[in-house]
Specification:
single chain; about 450 residues; alpha/beta; 10-stranded mixed beta sheet; 7-stranded antiparallel beta sheet; about 30% helix; about 25% strand; elongated
């Protein structure tokens, strides 16, 4: 039931206090009618007795306390969902901004979603091919997983995000039933145009739903944008039986919007001024990924965040690492060397990679070659660091081989560019080509049968 009040007592952007209200609930959608008839929207943030605190989605400028009418609509913020959302661009509040017609929704869904029953969760165990060797070959993405990308200010995470959105696919018969939901949170207009034009240029827009929240949009809209995207993903995955990859960039902008609203509410701050419930709030986003027993669809998440001052111990990457199943880390050192994309494979980790590789999923030799390449690159990096301190003459002949391996690995395996789409077979073939640099006696992590079967094919 809609209820209207003219009892606005105080407005402190982005918050409004309304007195003498009845039967108002948390997260309820609110309309504020100004004296000129214009409407602004908000949601109930807190209810204390007969007082409601309303969080405004737009600016509070021009609101007259005496004349403003506040309507409580009796339901939370909802998104109208439909299969026609594919190929469309929306703003952070779910309204089309691509010049196309309004969506005719098949149903309206609460953007906060419903908790996924832990007992109903199915374990992620199927491979998603991103076309990026450092992810597919060494830190494999598995269907239903949450695998964040940790970046830094000025690093090309936007290019990597666009590349993954463009190239990602599931292999086999279900490949045509794949969609991408892309949430751009607090980005500049230029970045937004880059994503839209990139998807249109390559045709990836046809299987993509894009939500774009700009840096000059209200902070409150920034909090709603990822929830809009995840609501669309849940509908496509569990109603339309699609495999959905959700890419959200930049989670740091989302967390800072939370901090801004928390400060306006005069809450006691936690680490670095962020609210104490930051962990819970981030978990409410990340835990909406997964697979459900008996349902064909799945939701896989790649949240992207920029680490302030490249600090992995900052609350945002720190808490994200606790909730998610690994991380892909972009390296400023590799970026300065000109590597594209500058993914540092040694500190990167996909905790579920072993569930998505092997015979019938990627290839039987995948796990062995992955372990061998990791070990060889780590030793090669150590050898190169030693050469800087002691000089190359201090290295043994084997150390020099490993140092050569590390150099070629970065040039051929890591630095593939943003336009190259490598199949998992291509990635594994490049891995075997690199391992030829080392004597076969050094390949101690690979079964002999795989060495005989695949190494002899190198160069054919």
């Amino acid at each position: 039931m809609i209820r209207e009040y003219k009892t606005v007592e105080e407005v402190v952007s982005p918050l409004m206090m309304v007195r003498m209200v009845e039967n108002v609930t948390y997260d309820e959608l609110v309309e504020v009618e100004l004296h000129d008839g214009s409407i602004r929207r908000g949601k109930v943030l807190e209810v204390n007795g007969d007082t409601a605190v309303v969080q405004l989605f737009e600016s509070a400028a021009g609101i007259n306390l005496a004349n403003a009418k506040v309507r409580f609509l009796g339901h939370p913020l909802e998104l109208g969902v439909s299969g026609d959302m594919l190929g469309r661009v929306f703003n952070g509040m779910g309204q089309p901004i691509d010049g196309g017609p309004d969506i005719l929704p098949e149903e309206y869904r609460d953007i906060n979603g419903l908790p996924m029953n832990p007992a109903a969760r199915d374990y992620p165990n199927e491979f998603i091919q991103t076309g990026v060797s450092t992810i597919d070959g060494l830190n494999t993405l598995v269907r239903g997983q949450k695998l964040p990308i940790f970046s830094g200010s000025g690093l090309p995470h936007a290019n990597l995000a666009a590349q993954i959105a463009r190239q990602a696919k599931v292999l086999g018969d279900e490949g045509s039933n794949f969609a991408v939901v892309f949430a751009a949170i607090g980005i500049t207009f230029e970045e937004s145009e880059f994503f839209v034009s990139e998807f249109r240029r390559t045709g990836a827009i046809d299987r993509t739903v894009l939500f774009s929240n700009l840096a000059n949009d209200p902070a409150v809209e920034r909090i709603s944008t990822p929830r809009m995207a995840l609501t669309a993903a849940e509908y496509l995955a569990f109603e339309k039986k699609m495999h959905v990859l959700v890419i959200m960039t930049d989670i740091t902008n989302y967390a800072e919007a939370l901090r801004e609203v928390s400060a306006a509410r005069k809450e006691v701050p936690g680490r670095r001024g962020f609210p104490g419930y930051l962990y819970t709030d981030l978990a409410s986003l990340y835990e909406r990924a997964g697979r459900i027993n008996g349902k064909k669809g799945s939701i896989t998440q790649i949240p992207i965040l920029t680490m302030p001052e490249d600090d992995k111990t900052h609350p945002i990457p720190d808490l994200t690492g606790y909730i998610t199943e690994g991380q892909i880390i972009l390296s400023r050192e590799l970026y300065n060397k000109g590597l594209q994309p500058p993914i540092d494979v040694l500190p990167s980790l996909s905790r579920l990679k072993n569930k998505g590789i092997g015979k019938g999923k990627t290839r039987e030799d995948h796990a062995d070659t992955m372990n061998q390449i990791f070990a060889a690159y780590a030793r090669g990096k150590t050898a190169k660091e030693l050469a800087v301190v002691l000089g190359e003459s201090a290295l043994s002949d084997m150390d020099k081989k490993y140092a050569e391996f590390a150099t070629v690995f970065e040039e051929k395996y890591v630095s593939q560019g943003y336009e190259t789409d490598r199949s998992i077979e291509d990635t594994l073939a490049i891995g075997w080509e690199l391992l030829e640099i080392l004597p076969r006696t050094e390949l101690k992590r690979i079964h002999q049968e795989y060495i005989e079967k695949y190494m002899d094919k190198v160069g054919e």
